[in-house]
Request: fold
Amino acid sequence: MGTKSSEEIIQYWQQHVEAFKSSGLTREAYSKENGIRVYQLDYWRKKFLPSKRKPAIDSKNQWVPVKISNDPGEKSSSIDLWIGTVRVEIKPGFDPTLLTEIIRAVDTQC
Reply:
């Protein structure tokens, strides 16, 4: 049996969540009948709930405009980068490679 892709895993659990909703069974009964664990069903049911908070942008991979000032009188000690609900503070002298790794890690969680 090969390793499933992220997309296949998501589809698998979407099917289970939808089947559970229409089954009329309790979480425990559905899980037992389908050979899955209740906590897994609960996790994915929660994951597929519509977000109560409207995202600032519609697309996951969309850029937002940033204003950069060249005024030497303006001080900027850091930049706040928001990825979903995660805030990353970027200070002068940051390591671009580390920032890239952080963004990739956070993106997989969001």
Observations:
- The two ends are 28 Å apart (CA to CA).
- DSSP finds four helices and two strands in the chain.
- The longest strand covers residues 79-83.
